[in-house]
Known about the structure:
With 785 residues, the protein is α/β, with parallel strands linked by helices.
Amino acid sequence: MASFFSDFGIMWYLKELNKREFVKFKEFLKQEILQFGLTISCTEVKRATREGLANLLLKHYEEKQAWNITFNIFQKLNRTDLIERAKREIAGHPKLYQAHLKTKLTHDSSRVFTTIIQDLLKENFTQNDRAYFENLLPSNRTVMRPQVVVIKGMAGIGKTLILKKLMFAWSKGLLFQNNFSYIFYFCCQDVKQLKTASLAELISREWPGSSAPIEEILSEPEKLLFLIDSLEGMEWDLSECESKLCANCIEMQPVNVVLSSLLMRKILPESSLIISTTPETFEKMENRIKYTSVRTVTGLNESDIISCFYNLFQDMNRALEVFSLVRKNEQLFNICQAPIVCCMIAKCLKNEIEKGKDPISLCRHITSLYTTYIFNLFIPQNAQYPSKKSQDQMQGLCFLAAEGMWTNTFVFSEESLRRNGVMDSDIPTLLDIGMLVKIRESESSYIFLHPSVQEVCAAIFYFLKSHEDHPSQYVKCIDILIFMFLKKIKTEWIFLGCFIFGLLHELEQKKLDAFFGHQLSQEIKHQFYQCLETIRGNEELQEQIDGMKLFYCLFEMEDEAFLIQAMNCIEQINFVAKDYSDIIVAAYCLKHCSTLKKVSFSTQNILNEEQEYSSMEKLLTYWNQMCSIFISNKDIQELQIKQTCLSDPAFSVFYNHWKHRTCTIKILKANMVSFLCEKHLFFEFIQNHNLQYLDFSFTCLSHINVELLCDVLNQAECNVEKLVVEHCNLSPDDCQNFAFVLMNSKTLKILNLACNNLDKGIYSLCKALCHPNCILENLVRDSCN
Length: 785
C-alpha cells in the first residue's frame, strides 16, 4: 500500500475538491480533531493549503489512519466517487497493469532484432521525446479534454514504434501518470481475426490475468487512452448509419463495428484515442472522424540511421563507411527511414562484408538487398546452398505472402500457415531466423518481419508457381497484379510490382535459380511484353496508370531495351514527384520517351526547397533530364503542371527546353503553381499560336500576373478559345483587364472567373459583353459576390 501512497498521495485527491468543498473538508477535520482528540493543530489546519494539509495528515498519522480520516470526511462531503477511486488505486490494478505492460514491451520484438529495436524503444527518454508526446496529447493543468489524434505515414515507417514508445514511457512512470490510468493497444490487423468481440473483451485480451476488472476500468473513461494501430488493416465503412454503431461496452458485435463505434465516439466518448494509419486511408476517413490533430511520421532521420549501423558494426568509422554506400542511393536511404528495414539492410551489408563480398553491387537496387538478406537467413553460415527443408519453408512463405497480399491479410493464423505449406514444426525455425514474428504470446498469430518482406515473398511466388497452383481462389494472375499495382487499386501494395520487375534482372534470376536449385519460369518477361501491347493505344488504361509506380518498376528492372519499349508504348503520363528519389527515377525513364502527347506532373516543393549547392546542382541535372521530354516528344498537345513550386533556376531549365522546340501544345493547365521565376518568362512561355485552352485554376494571380496574361490574350496571334481562372484570388481591379480582352479577342469564347471576389468589377465585364466586337459565348462567374 505504501508504494501507492508515495506515488499518488492524499494531496492529489484534495486537489479534486473545489474551493467550497475544501473549506468544508477543513471544518469537518477540525470537528474530528475536537471529537477524537487528534494530535493535529486546528490552527495549522485553518492555514494549510491542499499540499500542506496532506503533509500534516501524513506527518501526524500513519498512512492507513490518514486515509481513513480522509475517507470519512469525503463520505460527509458526498464525494464517494473519490473514495471508490482511491480504493481501486489501493487495490493496485493500474500499477499491476503498468508492470505487465513494461514487461511485455521489454520482450516484444523479433528475436533477430531484439537488441537493435529494443535500443530504439528503450533508449533514454529525452526532453525531446517528452515534448513530442505532450504536444501529441496536450492538456491544461485542471482538465484534459478527450483527444482524437491521427498519426499518418507509409506502411512500416515506424508508427507502431512510436505508439510502443509512448506505452513504454507510461509503463515506466515517465509520462501521462496523472492523465491516464490505463492505455490499451489494439492492432487492427490482429483484432480483425476475432470477427466478433466486445470492447470489454478487447480490453481483457490485454490484461495480465484471466479476468480484467472491467467495471473498474470503464468507470473513469476520461482516464483511458486507446491506441488503434494500422487502421488500414480493418474493413471500415464509416458511412454506415449511426444506428449500426453500438454504445454498449460489453455487447458482442463485429470487431469493425466495435472499433468504428470507438472512433465515431459512440462508445466512451470521454476517452482519448491515438489512431495510426496510412495517408491513403486517412484521406478516405478524414471527413468522417472528428479528430483534434494530425501528425505525419517520416521515420528515422540520418543520425538515427547512423546509430542503427553503429549498433551493429560497433565501429563508427566502419559504420559511416557502409552508411555512405546507402546514402548515395536516394531510394535506399528513403526506405532506411523505416526502423525494421534499416536494421535489415545494415545486417545484410555487414554479413556480406564478413563474407568478403563487395557491398557496392548489393546497393544497386532494393530488390537485391531484400533477396540477399532473406536467402541468407535460410543458408547455414558455412554452406553455399539451402537445404531442401529450407527451400520448402521459403516456398511456403511465398504462398502465404501471396495470399496475404490479395486478401489484405498481414496477420496469419497457424491454420493459414498450414494451408500454404508452412508446417507447425517449421514455425520455431521461422521465428528464430526472424522471417516471422509472433503477435502475442497467448495466441498463435504471426506476421512477417515487415510488410515489405511479405511483398518480396509474394513477388517470388510468381516465379515459383502459377496463380492456378495456389490453394486460394483470391490469388490472381500476374497480368492482373501488374495492372492493379500500376493503377494503385490496392494502396497497401507499396513495393510488390517493383519487386516483380526487380526479380527479372539477370543477377536476381541467377540468385533465385541457385536458391531453389533449378531454373525458374522465364514466362513472366514474355507476359510483361504482352502487358505493354495492352497498354499501347489504350488511352483509358494509360490515363489510369500512376506514372511514378511505372517509373519505379522500370528503374528496379534495370533493362534499357525493355525500358525504351515500355516508355514508347505510352502517349500520356501522369505522375507526382514528392521527393528527390522520385525525380531521379522519373528522369531515368522519361529521357527514353518519344511518343508522349499528354503530360501531367507535379513536383510539389522539391525544386523550391533550400538545399546545399551540390545537392541542388544534382537535382537540377535530373530535372534537366526530365524536361528533355519537351524536345524528344514532338507531338505533346496537352500539358498540365499542378501543385508545383519552381525556383528561378528550375523554371529556367524548364523554359530553355521549351523555347527550342516547335510548340504544338493546344491545352495548357497550370493549377496550384507558384510563380517564383521571372514573371515575364512564364507568360512568354504561353505565347504560341496553337494554344486554345488555358487553365490557371487554384493558381494565385497577382495584379501584375493578370496584366501580363491579358497582354498575351490581346495579341492578334493568340488563339485561346477557353480561359479558366477559377479560384485565382482575382480582385475587382483585375476585371478591367479582362474587359479589354473581351473587346479585343477574336477567339475567346469561354471565360471562367468562378470563385473570385470580383464584387463591382463585374460591371466593367458586363459593359464589355455589350461591345460589338465581343464574341464571348459563355461567362462563368459563380461565387463572385
